[in-house]
Sequence to fold (376 residues):
Amino acid sequence: MPELLPKNDFHRKIIHLDMDAFYASIEMRDDPSLVNKALIIGHDPRKHNGHGVVATANYIARQYGVHSAMPTAKAMQLVPVDRVAFVKPNFNKYRAVSGQIHELMHELTDQVESVALDEAYLDVTKNKLGIDSAIELASHLQQKIYRETGLTSSFGVSYNKFLAKMASEYAKPFGRTVILADDALKFLAEQKIEQFPGIGKKTQKQLHDLGIYDGADLQKLPVRFLIGKFKKMGYAIALHAHGIDLNPVLSDRRRKSIGIERTFENNIHSQDQALTIIRKFSHELSQKLKNKKVSANVVVLKIRSNSFETITKRQKLDQPTNQALEIFLAGKELYSQVPNFLEDGIRLLGLTATNLESKNYEEVPLELFTDSNILS
Ligand SMILES: [Mg+2]
Fold:
């Protein structure tokens, strides 16, 4: 192992799952007349004064050179006019399918980190099915997604996130690529630098100017040289070239939180006023949670005094909720536990709902939620 690099960790089992041409595949599934078209998800430039960008293109369109983020007018020039089809994106539909796929992922593990609607990392080192082989788990997931949604996906399996992602991109569509610890350096040596994550166009050019074209070239470079030349990014490139990525899969449920905070123009000196604001935040949080169809397990209060003392305090709820009253009661309880800043003045208040889970708890009518009850 070259100098300056941390010890590698081979014990994890990470899957990167990526749906194939996700939006386009959904539209083709729902309208078979599109299957043989060069399908572009985006507004038809002929109907939008030449404006718009490609959200996704199916594989036929990609063969003509169309890709995501390309102006639709440009895409139009690449594809024969009798072959092209435009469908405007329907994100509500894509979100719903994504939710369905996420439920299938959560049958394996709750260690799911979403990168986009169509892409996620899963840490299956420990998993709910008690299956040791990550390859078996990934194949199982790929097949189940296909059976339940009619959509294909590609997966990569390895001992860290960046290798799992490189693996899933290695063979698409319907790809299944595994990079074992013993093969990682050889696999990386054979990859062009364009395949490495985080090496942008500008850096590619600089590396080419130095005669560096592939992973093997990177592996031969002293780490110090890469750091000297590219600073932090050079270090990241060195880590990747040597197959090292210690970043954990950050599960959506633990990571995600919804919070509101506000700094006041005039400091708050009254408890009624503070609680009124916490109550207002509770309503806003409740609405946001309901919109996302999630419930919170923990409420966090943040408070800052005029002299910049900041306290955050959290409370675990008896059961997950998206109800304004329950959030408020937790917030009020937390408020009673923090130091009294009223004399100094409260400069900032924040309320956050966290440890979210995607369940819909029944709405309980709560007529009691009135000023007089709350502020008494
Ligand atoms: Mg994809």
